[in-house]
Amino acid sequence: MPDGQYVAAAFDSTLITQEYNDVWQAVRLHVLRVSDAGAITSDIPVDPPEGQFFTKEQTVLAGDGTSALIRFRHATAVGLLDLATGAFTTISTHASDDDPLYLQAALSPTHIAVYHEGASQARVVRREDAAGAQTAVTVPQYGTSTAFVGLVGGWLLTSYRPPYGTTPGPGGPLLATPLAGGAPETLLPAAEPQIAQVRPSGKPWVQPLRRPAAAG
Q: Percentages helix, strand, coil for the chain, rounded to the nearest 5?
């Protein structure tokens, strides 16, 4: 690793690293390309947009081999980082407060979703026009649990983390709400809280669930 850089995320042979100042503030990102032998073949420095700076923790919200969603110190926006050029597209979050650690984001081949925990809606944009018009999609709530969002095709997924100290149980449902509007559908009656986004690689984003064969 170049001196003074620390890995924040990795996507195949691309690394996103952070550079700190003397008081350990994250002042710059770098997009590194790495060869199969481990040599760094390119280093693109990335400065934050004017009026923003990077968070020290959980800087990368989501990403794939071409783009990454970057968390800033102010929760008013997130940045879509082009990993080929180092250029940012700023996406407004409509966050209810300025704490960026309550921001979530999801990235699919066609859409970007941004959600501030506790809000009743997520903001969704077309990936090809990230700075364009946003669609507000209702995030179903489940008691006092915290919703987590994901994206699959034309659907916003939500799962739920129960409050800390809750007695262990089956967990909340996994729901799918159409981006075009409409009531949510239940995919699973109980699911783990967080949603892991998986790159397509020519395969479906969600594999169909198969019912186990009956015993005997």
A: 5, 45, 55
